[in-house]
Design brief:
The chain is an alpha/beta fold. The chain has 3 domains: about 110 residues, Methylthiotransferase, N-terminal domain (Rossmann fold, 3-Layer(aba) Sandwich); about 230 residues, pyruvate-formate lyase- activating enzyme (Alpha-Beta Horseshoe), CATH 3.80.30.20; about 60 residues, Beta Barrel (OB fold (Dihydrolipoamide Acetyltransferase, E2P)). Helix content is about 30%, strand content about 25%. It contains 12 helices and 18 strands. The strands form 5 sheets. Strands 2-1-3-4-5 form a 5-stranded parallel beta sheet, with helices on both faces. The chain has a 5-stranded mixed β-barrel with strand order 14-15-16-18-17. A 3-stranded parallel beta sheet has the order 6-9-10. A hairpin with a 2-residue loop joins β17 and β18. The longest helix is centred in the C-terminal third of the chain and has 24 residues. The two termini are about 40 Å apart. It binds iron/sulfur cluster. Iron/sulfur cluster binds next to α6.
């Protein structure tokens, strides 16, 4: 069969769709880059915001219009709204998150447990990536009041070190130069068998030759003392994505977040002391229910004080089924948007000053995309270990190569670089 795979939302969804691609290929099926020629399609949907849910439905409708008669809908939006998913054109099957790990087996009605050492091959088309996202954990025990993911993904559960290492080895065999560990609540890996993420990272660095290991989002309260000594190993990328969500203590309490501005400040300071050049990025919600002008001002001041290297600002989106959606004092949509812009400007300002610190430095860059530029040769775009986006020119394409680059200047939201030699 020709199978088209598509995903919306987080890196975990991306990682799951990549695993499905490997499983379908292992069973002898072809993964196609566009739906037009597909016999079947699988769509991994998202529900984190109302926009993401709408995008998920839009992708399914687009695939149906392309003529695919058998669409399988899975993922968070499908798990929360299975009937509505089944009503969409072309959808013949819905697979909720609790059954997603064996979706391919169930569809093909055959066991596919003998995967290794099947090499990971980047998905064709839009989702072709140099970095491999490896799922190490699913679900979450926390109940942040704005979060629908914990509702859609269920309880926290960790994959074993052996399974994770197997996936990493097949990704490296497939040519990946960077591994990104991902999960719903990555920092809770191992809690279900009395271990900690530290042990997983140590095992990966010991048992594989991964050149670049990166961690995706980490909840600030999971990071134990000594965690930052892991970065003595230079194969661990100096980038920490720590969702703050709000810089105001009373708002954090209404969000049921297990952190405070004081504990967050102490954590960031410890990270900056232990890890040279570390990029600390974050997520912030603008216009959370009950957020007064004073609370917003307190949050903005704290965001400025933290001097983040970048991040995302989400306009609060009430998700049916969450505690926050039922809270009094919902902030007017236009005011949420206005606060979003103010926070974005503050984050962009600190990101700019973070980038400027690296003018004149030499750093390793993994090239993620190439575009031909005629007499200029090839324009490369890639990421340093501390998540600086870099552009440079090369006489030949260097997709998925790691080079040593002199960072000459800042150009909008990225660095202008000159390739020195192989990284
Ligand atoms: S820790 Fe993250 S995934 Fe868990 S409930 Fe909070 S925001 Fe959601």
């Amino acid at each position: 069969m020709k199978i088209y795979l598509d995903t919306i939302g987080c890196r975990l969804n991306q990682s799951e769709i990549e695993t499905m691609a490997r499983q379908f290929r292992a069973a002898g099926h072809e993964i196609v880059a566009v739906p037009d020629s597909a016999d079947m399609a699988v769509v991994n949907t998202c529900a984190v915001t109302s926009n993401a849910a709408a995008d998920s439905r839009g992708v399914i409708r687009r695939i149906a219009r392309a003529g695919v008669e058998e669409i399988v809908a899975t993922g968070c939006w499908t798990t929360l709204q299975p009937r509505r998913a089944l009503d969409l054109p072309g959808v013949r099957r819905v697979v909720t998150n609790d059954s997603k790990d064996h979706l391919v087996e169930d569809i093909l009605d055959l066991p596919i447990y003998d995967l290794e050492p099947l090499t990971r091959v980047p998905l064709p088309g839009l989702h072709r990536r140099t970095r491999a996202f490896i799922k190490v954990q699913d679900g979450c025990e926390n109940h942040c009041t704005f979060c629908i993911t914990t509702v859609a993904r269920g309880e926290g559960r960790s994959r074993t070190i052996a399974d994770v290492i197997l996936d990493i080895r097949s990704a490296l065999e497939g040519g990946a130069k960077e591994i990104v560990l991902t999960g719903v609540h990555l920092g809770s890996w191992g809690y279900d068998f009395d271990s900690h993420l530290t042990e997983l990272i140590k095992a990966i660095l010991r048992e594989t030759d991964v050149p670049r290991l990166r961690l995706s989002s980490l909840e600030p309260w999971d990071l134990s003392d000594g965690f930052f000594s892991l970065w003595d190993n230079k194969r661990l990328m100096p980038h920490l994505h720590l969702p703050l969500q709000s810089g105001c203590e009373s708002t954090l309490r209404r969000m049921a977040r297990k952190t405070t501005p004081d504990s967050f400040r102490a954590l960031v300071s410890a990270a900056r002391t232990a890890i040279p050049d570390v990029a600390i990025t974050t997520d912030i919600i603008a216009g959370f229910p009950g957020e007064t002008e004073d609370e917003f001002a307190e949050s903005l001041d704290f965001v400025r004080e933290m001097n983040f290297a970048g991040g995302h600002v989400f306009t609060y989106s009430p998700r049916p089924g969450t505690g926050a959606a039922r809270m009094k004092g919902q902030v007017k949509p236009e005011l949420r948007k206005k606060r979003n812009h103010v926070l974005r400007d503050a984050l962009e300002e600190s990101a700019r000053s973070y980038r400027r610190k690296f003018i004149g430095r030499k750093m390793s860059v993994l090239w993620e995309s190439t575009s031909e530029m005629g007499e200029w040769g090839w324009k490369m775009e890639g990421l340093t270990g501390n998540y600086l986006r870099v552009n440079a020119f090369a006489p030949s394409p260097r997709w998925n190569e790691i080079d040593r680059v002199a960072l000459e200047d800042v150009e909008d939201d990225r660095m202008k670089g000159v390739i020195l030699n192989k990284g």
